[in-house]
Design goal:
The protein is about 85% helix and about 0% strand. The protein is built from 5 helices and no strands. The longest helix has about 35 residues. It starts with a helix and ends with a helix. It is a multi-pass membrane protein. It is found in: Cell membrane.
Length: about 120
Amino acid sequence: MYDIHLMYRRYRSYIFYLLSIYVIGWAATEYQPVFLGLILGTSVSLYHLWVMVRKNVQFGRALQENRKIRSLGTASRFATAGIATLITLKFPEMFHLVSLVIGIMTIYIVIMIDYVIQQLRA
């Protein structure tokens, strides 16, 4: 499971770099709702990554020990995305809905870009 932890650290650092850029954009531009939506969505995306890695490690251990695993965390990921959407709909003057959705999808974009980079290096 070393590889998954290495990938997790790499993805997490990319997400933190993006979050820092979003915070600078929030502070320096007049598009504050857009950047707040990106910040909220990317934070949810980082949580989704953490849940996926944690459940993947638990799944690997369960396979080694011939146990069953209860779930892979899909319901909790849907719930956090739903809560973030409800927050955005409750405060539309603070958060931009489209940027929230883009932020939630950020980790998947980061994973694809990292995969291409790793394949080019190999």
